[in-house]
Design a protein that fits this description.
Elements: E1 2-6, H1 11-22, E2 26-31, H2 38-48, E3 53-56, H3 62-72, E4 76-79, H4 86-91, H5 93-114, E5 118-124, H6 147-165, E6 170-176, E7 178-180, H7 199-207, E8 214-217, E9 229-230, E10 232-234, H8 235-251, E11 254-260, E12 266-267, H9 268-279, E13 285-288, H10 303-309, H11 317-330
Helix pairs in contact: 1-2, 1-8, 3-5, 5-6, 7-9, 7-11, 9-11
């Protein structure tokens, strides 16, 4: 299958490229490298011993996007490209709506022009907002609490409407929980720019000595040890879910939202302990006041993914931390070290 991958140079994108190439798909990556490095794609080529097309462009640039899709003529699209920091979305909401929503509308229009009718969309469990019940299943009300989450929910709605209006169209909306870890080779992994927004890469930088200590935001939640708990999923499992979603979209029509998680929640303290085991280092931590907007617990219901995609996660928290440390210790400055 010919697959057009927006944001393919990013963290989840590169891991998914490896799965797609191993499955024999022909790829075109479309990325503006605003939060990614060309080095990551070089390493994907080396790891896979396969080549693929690359177009440097921005999804807000409708003309470049349209030309790229017309030239490649894909059978399907996997759409990763998007801004994803909750805090930044509060400060720059218009940027998030322009990039995530308008960019996605541009992509669907370009797909129409190229006659492409299949899309797998990188969404987020952030669309659920505050939990009315746990675990989150796909029927949970959609009520995001920040601009980032609202852009994801909006794009889901746009894609669902496009699917209804487009004959033989197929869409899978993958709602990620908390992707972590790295490829087993240690050659590609999460490479945040500036101060990490997510817990695992922050812990990794503390372990590597790039950060002084980890601040835990509150230890008085109603959880096993008082710290917040989340459903962490290995990025390699997440990449496999995209391959399964692509195969599902190729054989079905309509639009399906599907959670991608493990169904197991891990607390902050448990994640720190697992990273200490993986790195062989004691990590300095301090407990400070709760952070506004944080919830006690978040966990995925995974039955729909198992039923429709025939997909289940394989890796546990120790494997996630071990792979993260292999990447972090081998690439202390990320891709900038090359």
């Amino acid at each position: 299958m010919k697959v057009f991958v927006t944001g393919g140079a990013g963290y989840i994108g590169t891991h998914t490229l490896l799965q797609l190439l191993a499955a024999g798909h022909e790829l075109c990556v479309f990325d503006n490298f605003s939060n990614a490095s060309p080095v990551a794609l070089t390493r994907v080529r080396q790891l896979s011993n396969r080549d693929f097309d690359l177009v440097e462009g921005d999804i807000r640039d409708a003309a470049t996007l349209r030309h790229a899709l017309a030239d490649f003529a894909p059978d399907a699209v996997i759409h990763f490209a998007g801004l994803k920091a909750v805090g930044e979305s509060n400060d720059k909401p218009l940027l998030y709506y322009e990039n995530n929503v308008t960019g996605s509308v541009n992509l669907l229009a370009a797909m129409d022009a190229a006659g492409c009718r299949r899309i797998v969309f990188s969404s987020s469990a952030t669309v659920y907002g505050e939990a009315q019940y746990l675990p989150f299943d796909e029927d949970h009300p959609i009520a995001p609490t920040n601009p980032y989450g609202r852009t994801k929910a909006m794009v889901e709605g746009v894609i669902a409407d496009w699917t209804k209006a487009t004959p033989n169209a197929s869409a899978v909306l993958l709602r990620y929980f908390n992707p972590v870890g790295a490829h087993e080779s240690g050659r590609i992994g999460e490479d945040p720019r500036g101060i990490p927004n997510n817990l695992m890469p922050y812990i990794a930088q503390v372990a590597a000595g790039r950060r002084e200590k980890l601040s835990i935001f509150g230890d008085d939640y109603p959880t096993r040890d008082g710290t917040g708990e989340r459903d962490y999923i290995h990025v390699v499992d997440l990449a496999a879910a995209h391959l399964a979603a692509l195969e599902y979209a190729a054989s079905k029509t309509g639009c399906e939202a599907i959670n991608v998680g493990t169904g197991q929640a891990t607390t902050v303290k448990e994640l720190v302990a697992a990273y200490e085991r993986a790195s062989g280092r004691s990590l300095p931590v301090e407990v400070i006041a709760r952070r506004s907007g944080d919830v006690a617990s978040s966990c995925a219901a995974t039955a729909k993914a198992a039923d429709l995609l025939r997909w289940r996660s394989e890796f546990g928290v120790d494997a996630m931390c071990e792979s993260s440390w292999r990447w972090q210790s081998g690439n202390p400055h990320g891709f900038a070290g090359d």
